[in-house]
Write a structure and sequence with these properties.
Layout (H helix, E strand, L loop, with lengths): L1 E11 L7 E6 L21 E4 H9 L6 E5 L7 H13 L3 E5 L4 H5 L5 H4 L4 E4 L20 E4 H7 L13
Parallel strand pairs: 2-4, 4-5, 5-6
Antiparallel strand pairs: 1-2, 1-3, 6-7
Length: about 170
């Protein structure tokens, strides 16, 4: 399935636990001041890519723990990102996603549900420059939460993981 891609980074250790294949999607409606990836904001930027190509790249690396969907905004391309996440799960990979939307906002977006249901961990909320901290694992500002998505969906409210102490 086609989508807009900014970049793919293999063997990332900063975008989740273990070795990750990080997919930076192109296009973001949030335009957070101080964003780490402002080049991903323009939805017309980047290039066309295919989810099968990304899954082939993942399959080539036996050291991967999982894939991370970043951006840009993965939830701006829900259908292809859900297909990518499902494919990664079928390969036995852990799936993590970043979103400038909160979990609660995503629950109100029907198109987001298939992607949410395919994600293990979500880092939610916009990057806030005044809450920036380099001491946080896997996120840029202290307002962002690391959520156990299956548990959050089951409970109907965010279930926060404390990965600043011991990332699993």
């Amino acid at each position: 399935m086609k989508f807009r891609l900014a970049n793919v980074v293999n063997d990332s250790i900063v975008d989740g636990p273990g070795f990750r294949l990080t997919v930076f999607v192109q296009g973001c409606p949030h335009h957070c001041p101080g964003c780490h990836n402002p080049q991903t904001h323009d939805p017309a930027g980047g290039r066309d890519a295919d989810t099968d190509w990304v899954l082939e790249k993942a399959a080539e690396n036996p050291l991967l723990s999982g894939i991370t969907l970043s951006g840009g905004e993965p939830f701006a391309q829900c259908e292809p990102m859900a297909a990518l996440a499902r494919g990664a799960k079928e390969m036995g990979l852990h799936v993590m996603a970043y979103s400038g939307y909160t979990f609660e906002q995503l629950l109100d977006m029907p198109e987001a549900r298939p992607l949410l249901e395919s994600v293990d961990v979500l880092v939610d909320g916009p990057f806030l420059k005044d809450k920036r901290s380099l001491a946080l694992n896997f996120r840029g500002s202290s307002n962002q939460r690391i959520l156990d998505v299956p548990a959050s969906l089951q409970k109907g409210e965010p279930v926060v993981l404390d990965w600043d102490v011991n990332p699993a």
